[in-house]
C-alpha cells in the first residue's frame, strides 16, 4: 500500500496511541457496531506506485482523440479557444488551488481580491452592476437565474426560447420540476426566436423570459426586443451570453437584460470533457440580495487598510439554512480565477480582437463551405462563431471522413431538433487556421 | 506596516498587453461589416491593460497573500483539507483528458468513458451502493440530485412525500437543499450524547416523510451507534435514508453507508478523495444509490457493452440533467488517480490515521479546552472555548490568534448546537510533528487567554490586513471596481 501520502511510522502510531491511552487504533472505532463493519477488504485494484500510476494514466489518456491533435470545429456549448500560458501557471500556484473557501479573510486576501476583480470584469463585459463569484456552469447558472426571477417577481412561470442550448433547458426543467415552476418553450423561425410566438407566451404569470445570444445555432437574438416584451409584462429578462462574443457584441446589460448568465469555459478553461466549467451570473443592484452564490465585497480593516471579505452572507445556506437563496456552497472559484487571469491577459484590446478573429474566421469557413454544391446555410440570421449548414450527405458520414483527416467535425442538429436532421452546427474559434479551414472544406467537398 | 495590494485595474497603461494574438490569416471584411450595427458593442469593456510580467507579478503577489494546504496546516473541520497529490494535477492536464470535447463521437473518448465508469464502480464499492452518477458538480449539488431522486422514487410509487427530517447538528446545506428541492425541513433535536434521539425521530416520521438526511459520523465527529435502528424507523415509515458524505473520510474500508441502511449517498471528491478545494471549487459530488433508485438517475448514464462505452440518454424515468455535461471530469480524473494510488489497504489506512490524528489532538487539547462529549471521536473532534469565555475571549479571538502562529484555524461556531465550537479535522496526511506544533500553539493561546486577553482580541497581528469590518461590507456593499 501507499505510504507516501501517509506520514506515520509505526513508532509514531504507538506514541500517539499511548498519549490517547489506548492499546490499538481499533479501540478508537469502538462506536462502530459490529453489524455495520466491513469484514473484508474493499474490492478495488491494488495500490499502484507513482511510476505505474503515471503509465496507467497516460495509457488511458492516449485512448482519447485530443484536440491537440485534431482540428476541432465542434462547439455547441464547449469551445476550443486558446488558453494563454499564464492562466495555467497562475491557477497552478498551490496557494490558490490548495486553499479552501475564504472563511478567514486575513489569510485569504489574495483569493478574495482576485475574485473581487473577477466580479468586476464580469460586470464590465456583461454591462451589469453586480456579479457573484461563480456558479457551477452555464446550464445551472441559467436555472438559478430563472429561480431568482421567480423569487423576485413572486411568479412561477418562465418562458424560454427553444434556441437556448438543449442541455441548459434540460437543467432548467430539472430545477423547476419540484419547485412548482412551469417552463414554456418559445419556438423559432429561421434560426432565431419567433417574436410573435414569444409574445403570445408571455403574460401576467411570467417571471422571466430567457434567451441565449448567440443562441444554440450561433445566431444573434434580438435581446432588446425580448427585454421590452418581458418588462411590459412585469417579467425579468434573463440573457445567456457567450462571454467571448461580448468583445464585439453589445453587452446584454445595455440592451435591458436584468440577469446575464453564461458559460465561462471559453475564458481560459480547457474543454476537459465537459467540466469543470464556470457559470457566471451578473445582475442589477436591485437584485443583488437575491443573487445566489458567494459574493466578495471590499471593506477596510480596523486601521483603514483596504481589504476584502465574503459578504451578504445572510443569503447563504450556513446562515439562513432553509431560507437561503440557493444551496450553493462550493462553487467554481478556481475557474473564476482562471477567467480573471484570461481576461487580464487578453485585456481591453485583445478581448475585442479575439472576438473579431472568431467572426472573421467563422465567416470565411461558412462562405467557403456554402460555395460547395450540396451545402447551404441552414439559416439566414447573422452569426458570431457558430453557424449551421444543411448538407446533401448525412452528418455522420461527413464527420467520419473529417475524422480520418484529423478533423473533429460539427454537431448533427438532428440529435436535438429532429426537424433539423441533416444540419451540421460548425464552430470556428480564433484558434482555427486558414490551413485547417481549407482542409475542412476540401474534405467536405470530397464527401458531397 | 500593513499594506493594501494594488488592484489590477490600478496597474498598467493604455495600450499595454499581456498576450499577442496572431494576425487574421483568412480573407474577410472588417468585423464591423460582419456584425449588423444593431448588435455591435458601443463601448469596449474596461479590462486591464498590463504587460505579461505585470500580470504574472500581480497574481504571484496575490498568491503570496493566500494560505493553502501546501502553505501549512489546515485543520478545518468537516472540510477534510488533506494533501493534494501532485501526480493528480499532472494527470488531469494530460492532453487526452484536458483537450477532449464533451460532444465528440463516443468512439473517440473511450479512455475517458472507461475512467468515469471505473470511478462509478469504485465509489459504489466504497459506499456499498449499486450505482453511482458522477454528474453533480459539488456536494450540495449532489444533495439536490439525491433529494430529487428520492422525490422521483416516491412519486413513481404514487406517493407524495414532502418532508425531510434533518438533525439540528446537520450541515447547513441540508435544509437549504431540501428547500431548493421543493421539500420541507423537519428539524429534530439531538440527544445530549450527540446521537440522533430515537424518540424524537419516531415522533417526527410519518406518511409524509420523504427522507432523513444524516451525516455519519455526525458533525460532532461522533459515529451514530444506533444507525441500524435509525434506518429501521425511517424505512418502516416508508421514507428513505440519505447519507451526507462530507465526513466519509472516517470510514473508508471500515464501514459502508449502504450496509448501514442508507439508500442514497453523495461523496465530496474534494474532501475524501484528495482533489483540491480550489479556494471554493471546483468540487465534485457523485451520488450513489441502491438499485430501486437506478431508473431515476440523471441522464446520461454510461452504458458498457462488449468492452466499449456509450452515453445512454434513453432513460424515461430519469430526473433529467443536473448540469450541462457529465460532471467535473477534471476533478474525477484526480480522484481516480488517488484511489489507484491508495488501493484498498491505503484507503482504510487513511481513515484509520485520520481517526488516530483527531483523537490525538482531542486527548491533548482537552487539557485546556472543554470537550463536550466523553467519547472517542472519529476523524474530527469538537471542542469549545467555554472555559476561556470568563476571560472575555471568544472562539473567534482564538482563531485569529492562531493565524499569528502560522496555522489555518479550525471551523468555528459549527456545529451550531455546541457553544463557542471549535471543530478540528487534522486529516491523515499530517505528521505527528505537525500536530504537536499545532497543539503547542493552541495550549499557548489558552495560556494567553488567561494572561493577556487583549492580545487575543487584537489578533491577528502578523497578517497582511488586520480584522476586517464585515458589518460595513454587508451594509454598504462595494462588490466591483468602477472605471
Task: Please characterize this protein's 3D structure.
Chain A has 448 residues and is of the alpha/beta class. Chain A is 38% helix and 16% strand. Chain A contains 14 helices and 17 strands. Chain A has helices spanning 10-20, 25-28, 50-62, 85-91, 94-97, 109-126, 138-153, 166-177, 195-201, 223-232, 317-320, 333-370, 395-404, 434-447; strands at 71-72, 130-131, 157-161, 182-186, 188-189, 192-193, 206-213, 236-241, 259-263, 279-283, 296-300, 306-310, 375-377, 386-391, 407-408, 411-412, 423-427. In chain A, the strands form five sheets. In chain A, strands 2-10-9-8-7-3-4 form a seven-stranded mixed sheet, sandwiched between helices. A four-stranded antiparallel sheet of chain A has the order 13-14-17-16, with helices on one face. Chain A has a two-stranded parallel sheet with strand order 1-15. Chain A starts with 9 loop residues before the first helix and ends with a helix. Chain B is α/β, with parallel strands linked by helices. Chain B folds into three domains: 8-63, no CATH class; 86-341, Type I PLP-dependent aspartate aminotransferase-like (Major domain) (Aspartate Aminotransferase, domain 2), CATH 3.40.640.10; 344-475, Aspartate Aminotransferase, domain 1, CATH 3.90.1150. In chain B, the strands form three sheets. In chain B, strands 1-7-6-5-4-2-3 form a seven-stranded mixed sheet, sandwiched between helices. In chain B, strands 10-12-11 form a three-stranded antiparallel sheet, with helices on one face. At the A-B interface, helix 1, helix 2, helix 3, helix 4 and helix 5 of A face helix 2, helix 3, helix 4, helix 5 and helix 6 of B.
Amino acid at each position: 500500500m501507499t505510504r507516501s501520502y501517509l506520514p506515520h511510522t509505526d513508532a509514531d502510531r504507538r506514541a500517539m496511541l499511548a498519549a490517547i491511552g489506548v492499546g490499538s487504533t481499533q479501540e478508537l472505532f469502538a462506536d462502530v457496531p459490529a453489524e455495520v463493519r466491513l469484514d473484508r477488504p474493499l474490492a478495488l485494484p491494488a495500490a499502484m506506485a507513482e511510476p505505474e500510476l503515471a503509465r496507467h494514466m497516460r495509457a488511458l489518456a492516449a485512448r482519447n482523440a485530443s484536440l491537440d491533435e485534431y482540428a476541432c470545429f465542434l462547439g455547441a456549448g464547449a469551445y476550443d479557444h486558446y488558453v494563454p500560458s499564464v492562466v495555467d501557471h497562475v491557477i497552478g500556484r498551490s496557494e490558490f488551488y490548495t486553499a479552501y473557501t475564504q472563511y478567514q479573510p486575513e489569510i485569504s486576501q489574495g483569493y478574495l481580491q482576485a475574485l473581487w476583480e473577477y466580479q468586476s470584469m464580469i460586470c464590465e463585459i456583461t454591462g451589469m452592476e453586480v456579479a457573484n463569484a461563480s456558479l457551477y456552469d452555464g446550464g445551472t447558472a441559467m436555472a438559478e437565474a430563472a429561480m431568482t426571477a421567480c423569487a423576485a417577481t413572486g411568479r412561477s412561470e418562465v418562458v424560454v426560447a427553444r434556441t437556448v442550448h438543449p442541455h441548459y433547458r434540460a437543467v432548467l426543467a430539472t430545477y423547476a420540476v419540484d419547485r412548482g415552476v412551469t417552463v414554456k418553450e418559445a419556438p423559432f423561425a429561421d434560426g432565431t426566436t419567433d417574436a410573435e410566438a414569444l409574445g403570445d407566451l408571455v403574460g401576467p404569470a411570467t417571471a422571466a423570459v430567457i434567451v441565449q445570444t448567440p443562441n444554440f445555432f450561433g445566431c444573434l437574438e434580438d435581446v432588446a426586443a425580448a427585454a421590452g416584451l418581458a418588462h411590459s409584462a412585469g417579467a425579468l429578462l434573463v440573457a445567456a451570453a457567450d462571454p467571448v462574443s461580448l468583445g464585439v457584441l453589445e453587452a446584454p446589460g445595455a440592451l435591458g437584460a436584468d440577469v446575464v448568465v453564461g458559460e465561462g469555459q471559453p475564458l481560459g478553461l480547457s474543454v476537459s470533457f465537459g467540466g469543470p466549467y464556470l457559470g457566471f451570473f451578473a445582475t442589477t443592484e436591485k437584485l443583488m440580495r437575491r443573487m445566489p452564490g458567494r459574493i466578495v465585497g471590499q471593506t477596510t480593516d480596523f486601521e483603514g487598510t483596504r481589504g476584502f471579505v465574503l459578504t451578504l452572507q445572510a443569503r447563504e445556506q450556513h446562515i439562513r439554512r432553509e431560507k437561503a437563496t440557493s444551496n450553493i456552497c462550493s462553487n467554481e472559484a478556481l475557474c473564476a480565477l482562471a477567467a480573471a487571469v484570461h481576461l487580464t491577459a487578453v485585456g481591453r484590446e485583445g478581448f475585442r480582437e479575439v472576438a473579431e478573429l472568431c467572426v472573421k474566421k467563422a465567416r470565411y469557413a461558412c462562405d467557403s463551405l456554402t460555395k460547395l454544391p450540396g451545402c447551404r446555410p441552414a439559416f439566414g440570421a447573422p452569426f458570431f462563431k457558430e453557424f449551421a449548414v444543411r448538407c446533401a450527405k448525412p452528418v455522420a458520414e461527413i464527420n467520419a471522413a473529417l475524422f480520418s483527416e484529423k478533423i473533429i467535425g460539427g454537431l448533427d442538429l438532428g440529435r436535438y431538433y429532429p426537424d433539423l436532421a441533416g444540419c451540421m452546427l460548425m464552430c470556428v474559434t480564433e484558434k482555427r487556421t486558414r490551413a485547417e479551414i481549407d482542409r475542412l472544406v476540401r474534405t467536405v467537398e470530397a464527401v458531397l | 506596516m500593513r499594506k493594501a495590494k494594488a488592484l489590477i485595474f490600478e496597474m498598467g497603461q493604455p495600450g499595454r498587453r499581456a498576450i499577442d494574438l496572431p494576425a487574421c490569416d483568412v480573407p474577410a471584411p472588417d468585423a464591423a461589416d460582419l456584425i449588423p450595427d444593431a448588435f455591435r458593442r458601443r463601448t469596449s469593456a474596461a479590462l486591464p491593460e498590463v504587460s505579461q510580467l505585470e500580470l504574472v507579478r500581480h497574481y504571484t503577489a496575490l498568491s503570496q497573500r493566500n494560505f493553502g494546504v501546501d502553505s501549512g496546516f489546515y485543520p478545518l473541520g468537516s472540510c477534510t483539507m488533506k494533501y493534494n497529490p501532485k501526480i493528480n494535477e499532472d494527470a488531469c492536464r494530460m492532453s487526452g483528458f484536458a483537450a477532449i470535447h464533451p460532444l465528440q463521437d463516443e468512439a473517440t473518448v473511450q479512455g475517458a468513458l472507461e475512467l468515469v465508469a471505473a470511478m462509478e464502480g469504485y465509489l459504489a464499492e466504497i459506499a456499498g451502493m449499486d450505482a453511482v452518477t458522477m454528474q453533480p458538480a459539488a456536494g450540495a449539488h449532489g444533495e439536490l440530485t439525491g433529494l430529487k431522486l428520492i422525490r422521483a422514487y416516491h412519486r413513481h410509487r404514487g406517493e407524495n412525500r414532502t418532508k425531510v427530517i434533518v438533525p439540528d447538528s446537520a450541515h447547513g446545506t441540508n435544509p437549504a437543499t431540501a428547500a431548493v428541492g421543493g421539500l420541507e425541513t423537519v428539524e429534530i433535536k439531538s440527544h445530549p450524547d450527540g446521537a440522533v434521539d430515537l424518540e424524537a425521530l419516531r415522533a417526527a416520521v410519518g406518511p409524509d416523510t420523504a427522507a432523513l438526511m444524516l451525516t455519519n459520523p455526525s458533525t460532532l465527529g461522533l459515529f451514530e451507534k444506533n444507525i441500524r435502528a435509525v434506518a429501521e424507523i425511517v424505512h418502516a415509515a416508508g421514507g428513505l435514508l440519505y447519507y451526507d458524505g462530507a465526513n466519509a473520510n472516517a470510514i473508508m474500508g471500515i464501514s459502508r453507508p449502504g450496509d448501514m441502511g442508507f439508500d442514497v449517498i453523495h461523496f465530496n471528491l474534494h474532501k475524501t478523495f484528495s482533489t483540491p478545494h480550489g479556494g471554493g471549487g471546483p468540487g465534485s459530488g457523485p451520488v450513489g444509490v441502491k438499485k430501486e433508485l437506478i431508473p431515476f438517475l440523471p441522464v446520461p448514464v454510461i452504458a458498457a457493452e462488449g468492452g466499449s462505452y456509450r452515453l445512454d440518454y434513453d432513460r424515461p424515468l430519469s430526473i433529467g440533467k443536473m448540469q450541462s455535461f457529465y460532471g467535473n471530469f477534471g476533478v474525477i480524473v484526480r480522484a481516480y488517480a488517488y484511489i489507484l494510488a491508495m488501493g484498498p489497504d491505503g484507503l482504510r489506512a487513511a481513515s484509520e490515521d485520520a481517526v488516530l490524528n483527531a483523537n490525538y489532538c482531542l486527548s491533548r487539547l482537552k487539557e485546556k479546552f472543554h470537550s463536550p462529549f466523553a467519547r472517542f471521536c472519529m476523524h474530527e473532534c469538537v471542542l469549545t472555548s467555554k472555559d476561556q469565555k470568563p476571560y472575555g475571549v471568544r472562539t473567534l479571538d482564538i482563531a485569529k490568534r492562531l493565524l499569528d502562529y502560522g496555522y489555518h484555524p479550525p471551523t468555528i461556531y459549527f456545529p451550531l448546537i455546541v457553544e463557542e465550537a471549535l471543530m478540528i479535522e487534522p486529516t491523515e496526511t499530517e505528521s505527528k510533528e505537525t500536530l504537536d506544533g499545532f497543539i503547542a500553539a493552541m495550549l499557548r493561546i489558552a495560556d494567553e487567554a488567561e494572561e493577556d486577553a487583549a492580545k487575543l482580541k487584537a489578533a491577528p497581528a502578523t497578517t497582511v490586513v488586520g480584522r476586517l469590518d464585515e458589518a460595513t461590507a454587508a451594509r454598504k456593499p462595494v462588490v466591483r471596481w468602477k472605471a
